[in-house]
Specification:
2 domains, Ribosomal Protein S4 Delta 41, Chain A, domain 1, alpha+beta, 10 helices, 8% strand, five-stranded antiparallel sheet
Length: 208
């Protein structure tokens, strides 16, 4: 998924739902709303999809929402299966607390791709330490902050304005507008996670 270079709008059409991979553009200029049919020349499937197909599509949808490749995704599922809590909840929690996703939910980036770029370019600190690992998992008590040099960045300002309009910050984050930082108050609840999937179907897919 990290190497996907085609139009991300095709992914929304393939999964038959808006994945919001282009940030604020998905709210204003959405190709999926104009052309909701699946991409490609193959005729539409007749009849009801099989149980395998349903689980596969749910797995693919979550992978695309989190922008993660198959191998690391499988490792997360294996880790979740060994957890004492619900496997599905553990999986979504691991994805929700990735550094790139936390940066997006802070509001300084409107898409996961942009948030990942901020991390990779060294513009993000966690509890005062600069990190460039998008998959790093934050913990309760961590403070994620943006480099002061980017506070006047046009893209960051537009992202913050969009975040205010949409009201998308979860309650497990405490955002400080003065220094563009967010404190992780606690681990997120299932209702606060930004992945509209049926996680049990994904666990069942890998349990086959």
């Amino acid at each position: 998924m990290a190497r996907y270079i085609d139009s991300v709008c095709k992914l929304c059409r393939r999964e038959q739902t808006k994945l919001f991979l282009k940030g604020d553009k998905c709210h204003t200029k959405c190709v999926f709303e104009k052309n909701p049919t699946s991409p490609g020349m193959a005729p539409p499937q007749r009849g009801k999809p099989s149980n395998y197909a349903i689980r596969l599509r749910e797995k693919q949808k979550l992978r695309r929402l989190a922008m993660i490749n198959e191998r690391p995704f499988e490792r997360l599922v294996q880790e979740a299966s060994k957890s004492v809590e619900s496997s599905g909840t553990h999986l979504l929690g691991a994805l929700e607390t990735r550094l790139d996703n936390v940066v997006r939910r802070m509001g300084v980036a409107t898409s996961l791709k942009t948030a990942r770029q901020l991390v990779l370019h060294g513009h993000i600190k966690v509890s005062g330490k600069r990190l460039n690992i998008p998959s790093y998992r934050v913990k309760a008590g961590d403070v994620v902050s943006l480099d002061p040099k980017l506070r006047e960045n046009v893209g960051v300002k537009l992202s913050l304005e969009t975040s205010k309009k949409l009201g998308g910050r979860p309650s497990f984050l405490q955002f400080n507008e003065e220094d563009f930082s967010a404190k992780i108050l606690r681990m997120p609840d299932r209702s606060e996670m930004a992945f509209p999937v049926t996680e049990q179907l994904i666990i069942e897919y890998y349990s086959k």
